Amino acid sequence: MVTRAALYVRVSTEKQAERYGIASQVEALVRRAQDNGLVVMPEGRPLIDDGYSGESLDRPAMNRLRELVRQRLVDVVLAYDPDRLSRRLSDLLLLADELEAHGVKLEFITQEVEWSPEGRMFFQMRGVLAEYERAKIRERTMRGAREKARQGKVVSASAPFGYVYDPREKTLRVKEEEAKVVRLIFYRFANERLSLQGLADKLNRLSIPTPRGRGAWRVSTLGHMLRNETYIGRFYQLKGSKAEPERRLKPLGKYKKSSYRLKPKEEWAVAQVPAAVPTELFRAVQTRLEANLRLARRNARHSYLLSGLLRCGLCGSRIGGHVVLGVPYYRCYRKLREKAPLGPDGQPLLCRCPEFQAAVGEAQVWEAVTELLMDPQLLIDQLRRQRENGSEARSFLEEELAQHIRRLEAVPAEERRLVEGYRRGLVPDPLMREEMDRVRRERTDLERRKGELDRRLASLDLTQTQEAQVRELVARASANLGTMDFGQRQELLRTLVEEVVYTPGQLVVKTIIPLDGQLHPLHRGGAGGEGLDNESALLS
């Protein structure tokens, strides 16, 4: 009688491949099958899971093996070692019971198993000891990694684009050819007012190679790169650990058994590595990312008048729209578990700020802004009060002037860095010309604005010309208020409103009034309805 056998092979990582390589497993299994006169099923080929973890039974070859068993097409399952079938004792015992129920014998190259009650007991004991030993090895490995990380060493050989791992020094080194591409990406994004999609399109048009050397640049890749603090010399490690999933996904009828949970950032281990990007450039990129995020329209099903303008007064996070039973609402992003930071106990710190109906908040903000535009004398009186000696408006102008002076003083140093980077081959010739032109334009703009601020501080009295400009602005904006469509109203709000801060029970509208071609702060207080207050707040 012919005995049919299924040969099962699995490797998951390169480290395992050194010990249990595919070739060595196949050779040993085929030899055993030939020595015992077994017919290999299916079609004389072993079943191979290449690159699959033993933590789960959901693997292509394993699924095929179990299907052959259920169809009673095999009499023997032969594997090199029990941990090739599974690294979990519970899964291994499940497989053994499944095979036994279908009359299939289980054999291994590395050990003989007697399937009597005593043999099953010893098999289980060996499995328990093996699982315990693996847990000890993992713990020792993690303890060693944590100690090396505490000493400031890099414990992972996985380096971000622009770096290469130095195994001798246990650190990262800048890979200059890739770092040039990284710097180009940061410069482009910071200085060309691009979205991430626009940046990806530009890089693809220029045929700049991706980190993998193939395919196209994607928004997700660029977003991760532009936020990665490794590029300014801070490489974070041991940022999280495996945990039970908060939401169970069900791909192909199988439940995901674990997920990765981030620890609070203060618990991450950080290693100092060479910086590939100037700190000032990195900060400019973060500012641009935040601005793009605020102005992004996040909901395609409903239009939100205050999109990109709302901020939570309790936690400082952005507020966005969502729909409840067909009704649009605004809510703080940190009310979502996946957006909230983790506390010391590893649990998300959810914001307590309540949601509010979009229609109510939008109506009150629109009413507050239009009320300002309908009363030019109110605007003029408020501007006069702010220009008095000791007013906050004067302080804002003085602070803005100081910022412009500091920036003007920093421009020559930036020019020298560009020249030095060009001399050392770090900045390509086209980028050098673009950046020098940008710096010169910025110097011109700063000097012009500084002169305007000097003149404003010299004479803070509201002139008749400026008063006429306020009246003209109000007349121009208020003439079409009743006929504006959604897009026009949203554009007007973004022109006049810096942000809207929501705390339970009130909205605070921070407005800016265009005057002399500039944006001037305006403070206005007023009462709202339906439990919400609207007022402007002084903002530079």
Provide an overview of this structure.
The protein is an alpha/beta fold and 540 residues long. It folds into 4 domains: 3-133, Resolvase, N-terminal catalytic domain (Rossmann fold), CATH 3.40.50.1390; 163-245 and 256-295, Putative Large Serine Recombinase, Chain B, Domain 2 (Hect, E3 ligase catalytic domain fold, Alpha-Beta Complex); 297-387 and 464-540, no CATH class; 389-460. 46% of the residues lie in helices and 17% in strands. It is built from 16 helices and 20 strands. A hairpin with a 2-residue loop joins strand 13 (319-324) and strand 14. The longest helix is centred in the N-terminal third of the chain and has 34 residues, at 117-150. The radius of gyration is 33 Å and the shape is elongated. It starts with a strand and ends with a strand. The model is unreliable at 14-18, 246-257 and 516-540 (pLDDT under 50).
What descriptive keywords fit this protein?
disordered C terminus, 540 residues, Hect, E3 ligase catalytic domain fold, 5-stranded parallel sheet, 6-stranded mixed sheet, Rossmann fold, alpha/beta, elongated, 4 domains
